[in-house]
Amino acid sequence: MSHKAGFVNIIGNPNVGKSTLMNAFVGERLSIITSKAQTTRHRILGIVNGEDFQVVLSDTPGIIKPAYQLQASMMDFVKSAFEDADVLLYLVELGEKELKDEAFFNKIRAAKIPVLLLINKIDKGNEELLGASLKLWSEKVPNAEVFAISALENFGVGEVFKRIIELLPESPAFYPKDQLTDKPERFFVNEIIREKILIHYKKEIPYSVEIDTEEFFEEETIIRMRAVIMVERESQKGIIIGHKGTALKRVGVEARKDLEKFFGKQVHIELYVKVNKNWRSNEKQLRRFGYNQK
């Protein structure tokens, strides 16, 4: 029996539902999902295995014009998505009419690999809007196969996945067949904590935060972990902690519940807040947190 394997990279503007689609394909909650832009900061691999295939999915940050060094590093992850893809998924939202970066758009139109253009969130519109979107994107990206989906409702996702497998090259598996992702456990601890901060804090706070899980000890019935929430300024530290520690406690309680679901066992977590001045513009700090790959 022949075996297919390949890299499938998901790109698009912020908030188009890339992480929701990735999780729908994988069947696990690997990428965090919030309504705020720039939720995904890293390139996250999700691996789907079948008897005769292995699909290595890559969820990249949303395409933006960088305003500071962290965002520039995030865009490096997106650029790398063009370099090793066997199939490219370009995700747009129903009603969306353009990509924020014209250079990326031209790359998609000139791509030599198969491109699947997915119009997401069709559950939010009507047939007239969908018809106009299908026509628009078929004309804008003539080299792409266009699909209408709702990642959230899992509509059309199976059809897209079937097409991905058809397009994969014949190849042995790249990863062990029982592997779900390329990221270590601490990465998902960091991401789940960061998701709670994105949900509960406003304005600049969520974007000024980075998480560092300093301790992760797994015992038979419990995982004990200690994580530090880094902020850029002293005033942000007070906001994260909140009056008598109530805001920080809420983050800890909600993160613990999700971590227990993710790891399938009891979790004890300790959270601390530290000031790490201007870390988003500091190349050394960005390398430490896994952003600068150069």
Itemize the secondary structure elements and their pairings.
Blueprint: E1 4-12, H1 18-26, E2 44-50, E3 53-59, H2 69-83, E4 87-93, H3 102-109, E5 115-120, H4 127-140, E6 144-148, H5 157-167, H6 185-200, E7 210-218, E8 222-231, H7 234-241, H8 246-263, E9 266-275, H9 283-288
Parallel strand pairs: 1-3, 1-4, 4-5, 5-6, 8-9
Antiparallel strand pairs: 2-3, 7-8
Description:
The chain has 294 residues and is of the alpha/beta class. The chain has two domains: 164 residues, 3-Layer(aba) Sandwich (Rossmann fold), CATH 3.40.50.300; 104 residues, K homology (KH) domain (GMP Synthetase, Chain A, domain 3). Helices cover 36% and strands 24% of the residues. The protein contains nine helices and nine strands. Strands 2-3-1-4-5-6 form a six-stranded mixed beta sheet, with helices on both faces. It has a three-stranded mixed beta sheet with strand order 7-8-9. The N and C termini lie far apart (40 Å).
